[in-house]
Design brief:
This protein is an alpha+beta fold. Among the domains are: 143 residues; 252 residues, Phosphatidylinositol 3-/4-kinase, catalytic domain (Phosphatidylinositol 3-kinase Catalytic Subunit, Chain A, Domain 5), CATH 1.10.1070.11. 52% of the residues lie in helices and 7% in strands. The protein has 26 helices and ten strands. Strands 1, 2, 3, 4, 5, 6 and 7 form a seven-stranded antiparallel sheet that branches. The longest helix is centred in the C-terminal third of the chain and has 24 residues. The protein is globular and about 70 Å long. The two termini are 44 Å apart.
């Protein structure tokens, strides 16, 4: 319920917040539902205080939150750190003070993880956010009593500066790689560091088990720090020239990252937070746990609002390459002529029925992805498990991707894990229905082209895929408040593409109409009243009805025929 002025339920708000806090204090079973809801209620109420009566309620709430800040263990607050950081410039002074106190408290307890979470805010284009983050860092340095932490606070800013330089580095036009020792001598000289390697295993928090006391609990595995960097940094051939960087950990292992310039990785970061919470919810739901539904996660670290680093996902192959290799082996695909042939067919079908265009291309490139699974997993039981894993992970990504408006699902952004068969999605630049704003709008809710359906087995998208879609939608609907709380952070820390060019960078919290519209669309899809792509509101459908409608739209030949040529709807 939106918290505005003069609403009768405001009187019970202090008690509601206190009980949410107690639910977290006395157990962690519902922490991913209770804590985000507690913070959302507190932040929203703090933004709408005008009357004297509400100020009295505000004082009561502030006292409860100050007590909660001390009572709850630091690792509990760490689960909601992105939500806290997004409100670092809250307009209410009381809320702002307690929020910054909690962030400081968490950063003192878990500096390695918190510093990476705060990295982008310290370089924010919004001056108020930048100043608030700097104030927190200054407080940490001022009250630091541990020599190890003091060393960490000194090393981290210069490491971030060097990584930002690395992301934005522009070597000669035809270069395929460059030397880190030559072009980034300062970074190489600074190594080894005490800063944690920013990988998913080091950033993923483990909650205590029933037999473990809070003082005994270690929420993170042993920290692996950055020891060295491999000299050769490879340039990838895409437009923005991202770099493939190999760092060597204190454990002697090699950790690969993608350093990306000119991309707002806060979307990717938020998507990984959603994945983390959903994996927890999937594990608790009997139907999804039975099917082992999950989303593969990897670390995404925004360094500024336009640069960042991404953990490389090992043992994966792009969907396009998996299919293309088989077509080449069959002699039906010639790299030199295929693009010209397809372009000629597209140009010849201007103004005609799009389904006819797709039929012609489908006949040229029959589905072959099932053969990739047969080649990779020759043992029958392993093959069956890999195929089932692919079917279910594709279903999860299809439903979650549609809910959050994920587009640009071409053959390079869907990866297949060669060890498990799972589908792994990368590159979330086209989140929140951005695909609808393209010159050729994306007309399908997710990718469900012939090769994907082919890999599901003889039943196609019936059976395992459809049922996994329904189970995923059910979990998303039941826990929609939790999901909305995570995504709500983007309303208060809006993406670069949502902020007008002439917007002032003030200290006030940014409210953004485009962000609010995106949240309203997500809420409509979670209730089943907004169906498909750019649909008008309707009566709510059941999860089965919604899944059926989305599968129909995703496989409709007229929709696929309208997709951009190099999205490759025939693949």
């Amino acid at each position: 319920i939106p918290l505005g002025e003069d609403q009768p339920h405001l009187e019970i708000l202090p008690e509601v917040i206190r009980n949410y806090g107690l639910a977290v204090q006395y157990g962690h079973q519902h922490i991913f539902q209770s804590l985000p809801r507690l913070l959302t209620l507190w932040f929203d109420f703090g933004s709408h205080i005008k009357s004297i009566a509400n100020r009295q309620i505000s004082t009561a709430v502030a006292n409860i939150m100050a007590a909660m800040a001390k009572a709850l263990p630091s690792y509990a607050w760490l689960t909601a750190l992105p939500q806290l950081i997004s409100r670092i410039c809250h307009t209410n002074p009381e809320v702002n003070t307690v929020t910054n106190h909690i962030i400081t408290h968490v950063a003192e307890a878990y500096p390695q993880q918190a510093l990476w979470a705060l990295a982008a805010v310290q370089k924010s284009l919004v001056m108020g956010r930048k100043q608030a983050a700097s104030a927190i860092m200054n407080t940490l340095k001022k009250h630091c009593t541990k020599p190890y932490n003091r060393k960490l606070y000194d090393q981290f800013p210069s490491l971030c500066d060097q990584l930002i330089r690395l992301c934005n580095h522009q070597p000669p036009a035809k270069a395929k790689s460059f030397s880190a020792k030559k072009d980034f001598a300062a970074l190489v000289r600074s190594l080894p560091l005490d800063v944690m390697m920013p990988v998913n295993t080091g950033l993923t928090l483990t909650l205590p088990t029933s037999g473990c006391t809070e003082r005994q609990h270690q929420p993170f595995a042993e920290v692996v720090t950055i020891a060295d960097i491999k000299d050769e940094v490879e340039l990838l051939p895409s437009l923005q020239k991202p770099k493939k960087v190999d760092l060597i950990g204190s454990d002697g292992r090699l950790y690969r990252f993608l350093a990306k310039p000119k991309d707002d990785l806060r979307k990717d970061n938020r998507m990984m937070e959603v994945a983390s919470i959903l994996n927890g919810l999937f594990a608790k739901d009997p139907a999804s746990r039975r099917r082992n539904l999950l989303i593969r996660r990897f670390a995404v670290i925004p360094l500024t609002e336009e640069t960042g680093i991404i953990e490389w996902v090992p043992h994966t192959h792009g969907l396009r390459h998996c299919c293309q290799d088989i077509y080449i082996a069959d002699g039906t695909y010639d790299k030199r002529t295929v693009n010209m042939t397809v372009k000629k067919i597209y140009d010849g079908f201007q103004g005609k029925r799009k389904s006819e265009l797709l039929d012609k291309l489908l006949a040229m490139y029959p589905p072959v992805l099932h053969r990739w699974f047969l080649a990779r997993f020759p043992e029958p039981a392993t093959w069956h498990n890999a195929r089932l894993g692919f079917t279910r992970t594709t279903a999860v990504w299809s439903m979650v991707g549609h809910i959050v408006g994920l587009g640009d699902r071409h053959g390079e952004n869907i990866l297949l894990d060669a060890t498990t068969g799972d589908a792994v999605h990368v590159d979330f630049a086209f989140l929140f229905d951005r695909g609808l704003t393209l010159a050729i709008p994306e007309m399908v809710p997710f990718r469900l082209t012939q090769n994907l359906v082919d890999a599901f087995g003889v039943s196609g998208y019936e059976g395992a895929f459809r049922r996994a879609c329904e189970v995923t939608l059910q979990v998303l609907r039941v826990h929609r408040d939790t999901l909305l709380s995570v995504l709500e952070t983007l309303v208060h820390d809006p993406l670069v593409e949502w902020v007008p060019k002439n917007a002032k960078s003030g200290a006030e919290e940014q409210e953004n109409a485009m962000a609010r519209d995106a949240m309203a669309t997500i809420e409509g899809r979670l209730t089943g009243t907004l169906l498909g792509v750019s649909s008008m509101p309707s009566l709510p459908l059941s999860t089965e009805g919604q899944a059926h409608r989305l599968i129909e739209e995703a496989t409709d030949k007229n929709n696929l025929g309208q997709m951009y040529i190099w999205w490759m709807p025939w693949l």
